[in-house]
Amino acid sequence: MWFRPEIRLARVNRLRFLARRPPNVFDFTAVDFEIIGKIIDVETIATSQSIRTLARLRKRYGKGRWRKRKGLATVRLDDGTIHAAEVHWYEAHGIGKKEFKIKFPLID
After folding, report:
1. Is pLDDT above 90 for 65?
2. Are 28 and 99 a contacting pair, CB within 8 Å?
3. Which of 20, 31, 64, 100 is the most exposed place for a label (fewest CB within 10 A)?
4. Domain segments of the chain: what residues?
């Protein structure tokens, strides 16, 4: 062959490594809090091309004018405690609000 065998071996090892990865590393279905009441002081952090994960959002939920937004909300954690917290999420017209996250510190 015209190329070195150690390069071919490195490529094969990389393919084996990629095959061993779990199929869905990012699973956003599990939510460890519940939003109680309304989200207030809502503002847009980023729109369209400014969102780092735009390709993933379009692939998972579909095309739309995606925005990353934040606001203040009262949340109930899994252990039952209630806190005021800053909440971040993605949103698109016709698709809705997706992937809520609590950003720390919790405000009390």
Report:
1. yes
2. yes
3. 20
4. 31-107
Structural tokens at position 76: 């109930």
Residue 78 has which token pair? 């899994």
Give yes or no for a contact between 88 and 70, defined as CB atoms under 8 angstroms apart.
Answer: yes
Residue pointed to by tokens 């934040």? 70
From the CA atom positions of the chain, what is the Rg in Å?
20
Model pLDDT for residues 69-82, shown as the tens digit of each residue:
999 999 998 888 88
pTM for the predicted model, two decimal places: 0.68
